[in-house]
## 1
Amino acid sequence: MDTTGKKTNHRLTYGLIAGLVVCLITLGLYLGGLDMYLGPVAYVSYLVVVVLSILAGLRQKKENGGYLEFAEALKITFTVFALALLLQTLFTYVLLNYIDVPFKQAVAQEVMNKTEQMMKKFGATDAQIDQAMDAERNKDPFAFSRVLLGYGISCIVAFIICLIISLCIRKNKPVFDNI
């Protein structure tokens, strides 16, 4: 029995659901203002993606009679993550570059302020801080190339998370069925 369509369907379905939920969370954070957008509550969206990737893997495991190979679990969980992160990246790019450019500028300025505070906290000299700030001041942190790089880095981190999730939800079929 060919279940390839079902596997792809779960990956895409849960990935799209996760992406939609993450975009709605991002919109809510945006509407909440700069402090909320850059605050720790923003990490809730990643928890949502973790939960939905687990649910996608468990659903496929149930359809496979309680078994799910590690490689298959990894494909499912990573597809959910990659699709959700892609949708969030595209949504954020459009939001900040086309819908509300002043908000983008405010985010960039606040990120610069937090970076400066962090550098001071770690003992950087004023010259080092000035050099780092000057290097970043003329760059657009939301340029497509930088957003794409951020997506790639996020996918690498997501892959590590998916490895752990897949190890937890996998269950191999026994080599010999004891009847």
## 2
Amino acid sequence: MSKILVFMLVLLSACETPLDYFIDEKELIEVYSIPLDLYMNAEYQDSTGYYIIDYPMNSESSYTAVEYYTNPMTRVFWNSEDTYTFIYWGREFVYPIITNSTYSSEDGDGRQLIYLYKDHIGDTLSVDGCIEEGCKRLYFIVREG
């Protein structure tokens, strides 16, 4: 019985993990890499590579959306360095133009709204979509519509 125990300990300590012989690291990366493609349903400007969003001039605020494709039922976290400010009862509140998280559909598609207001006209804004493997950034320009 002790010979079997010694043999098992030698076998287990001979490699980093017992599964090293069965799993190819390159194959593991390919299996678990999750794609994330961000895009907008808007005019795409080739010279800068940024999307163009038309802001409706008769509105105090507006929305646009970032759309994405990834694996089915994947959670995507949203953030932006760009913000909007509103005043409520004399206090200023500043929030990112996109927040929270969404799950992709069973087909891998999804979308999240982006808040815009008049001060964004003429600016280049960006939003970040993040999954486990990392983040992608999408840029867009807001112009008078």
## 3
Amino acid sequence: MPDIDSLMEEWPPEMEEALNNLRLPNEDIDMSLEQYAKLACTLLDIPVHNTKNGKNMIESMHVFFTLYSVFKENVYF
């Protein structure tokens, strides 16, 4: 898993512009919670590792929520 500092790095200007012009999916999208979580992790460059049963999202979600917590505590945002 990537460390939080690398995930907090500034994105290239092209990515910032693309996100400003892109409509991200909301809660009304027709997909399972697991699929939605995988999509969110993918958008933030958090790896999702498949296991034998394909259901292990714990480590990825831990990184996701740690990133969220660090982001919310950051005075620059």
